[in-house]
Specification:
Largest sheet: 6 strands, mixed, barrel
Order of helices and strands: HHEHEEHEHEHEEEHEHEHHHHH
Shape: elongated
Helix content: 55-70%
Strand content: 15-25%
Strand order of the largest sheet: 2-3-8-5-7-6
Number of helices: 13
Distance between the termini: 33 Å
């Protein structure tokens, strides 16, 4: 224990004696840790946000999409699926990308033509006002339910009921405000499906949400939806039926692979930092040759010398790691403030991985210089005049 404390004290003294050189040595570790933490944290936080958005729609929800441009289906073709026992509701919808304007303020929105059942089936919540109802579809009214992001961009306020905006050459009156979700739904504008069809100049529908009768009948509902689409199209390659749980699993697999890839790429920076540590430690061993000779002459053994230089390399690596963690936290906080809709944070697992990897880098790349110092002959070391 005494040997360890003495080695720690000497390592600390040596590190602080050359502050600028020590900092430049740490720089590779700092950049490496920041790369690992920021890239992996952003990937994990984005995955979590998307997963929460999908999960909030319910595990009993299916998404049916026509993928063949030659296949044309209308609203009633999808609504026929409500006749199946395993399906409790169908909400066909039509997406029309557009730009909304209020006064001199513009914002890009995703305008979605929906039916009266859309809110319940898709699991959307209202903050205020009302949803799109059947009378809006019957009369093809220019009414809209806007997301929180749209309200903030156009009016800088959530008190938007009764206000108007222009979109696709028409003036829409806001009748409802969606609850803030922190996902892409905040930039959506829901309008009557018939109105969206008029704007798009087409009655063709390519997508619908399908709700299973219960969470226990999702597989049955999926089979029924697939059978219905096959009957309509005659080609099983012209449509897809997504189960939300399957979509979540697929997305998790993809994002986990992406996180590993990003972490691996960023870890290369840590290896470069390790090479920098070894290089400076070799310089330090050469500069302190006479010190090593004196220590050996008064009785210090190989183990003591080696421990001193290993601790010094480990200390430089860990100090760089801690600075990297602090800067990573600061950058993620700034990114969170800028992004607003997604909270980026460091997970404990990623932090422990960075600390462990940095420790390993310090020990591995400090081993050769420490061994070189420990093997110096005391007489030759004392005669060194470098």
């Amino acid at each position: 224990m005494t040997m360890f404390l003495n080695s720690l004290r000497l390592a600390m003294r040596s590190t602080l004696a050359n502050k600028m050189r020590s900092f430049l040595t740490m720089l590779g570790i700092i950049i490496g840790v920041m790369s690992v933490i920021i890239l992996v944290s952003i990937a994990q936080s984005t995955t979590s946000s998307i997963s929460n958005a999908i999960a909030s729609m319910g595990s009993d929800l299916l998404t049916v999409t026509v993928t063949d441009e030659d296949v044309t289906l209308d609203e009633n073709d999808f609504l026929e699926m409500e006749n199946y026992e395993g399906i409790s509701g169908v909400a066909p919808y039509l997406t029309v990308s557009s730009t909304a304007r209020s006064g001199s303020t513009y914002t890009s929105v995703s305008a979605i033509g929906v039916t009266g059942e859309f809110m319940d089936i898709a699991g959307r919540d209202m903050e205020s006002g009302r949803a799109i109802v059947q009378s809006d579809l019957d009369w093809r009214t220019y009414t809209a339910v806007v997301g929180a992001g749209v309200a903030g961009d156009l009016f800088d306020s959530y008190d938007v009921i009764g206000k108007t905006f222009t979109m696709s050459g028409h003036t829409f009156t806001i009748v409802g405000l969606l609850a803030e979700s922190g996902s892409d739904t905040d930039s959506q504008v829901l309008i009557p499906l018939t109105t969206a069809q008029r704007i798009a100049d087409s009655t063709a529908i390519t997508t619908a949400y399908v709700m299973a009768s219960s969470t226990n009948t999702v597989d049955i509902a999926q089979s029924e939806a697939e059978a219905h689409m096959l009957q309509l199209t005659g080609d099983e390659d012209s449509y897809t039926v997504y189960n939300m749980s399957e979509l979540l699993d697929t997305m998790d697999d993809v994002m986990n692979t992406l996180s590993l890839m990003l972490g691996g790429i960023a870890a290369i920076s840590l290896l470069v930092g390790g090479i920098g540590i070894m290089n400076i430690m070799l310089v330090s061993v050469t500069e302190r040759t006479k010190e090593i000779g004196i220590r050996k002459a008064i009785g210090a053994g190989k183990k003591s010398i080696m421990l001193q230089f290993l601790i010094e390399a480990l200390m430089v690596s860990l100090m760089g790691c801690l600075l990297g963690l602090a800067l990573s936290w600061l950058i993620l906080e700034v990114v969170t403030l800028v992004a607003k809709t997604i909270t980026f944070s460091m997970s404990l697992g990623v932090v422990l991985l960075a600390v462990g990897f940095s420790s390993a880098i310090g020990l591995i790349f400090g081993l050769y210089p420490a061994n070189k110092a420990a093997n110096k002959h005391p007489i030759e070391a004392l005669r060194y005049e470098g």
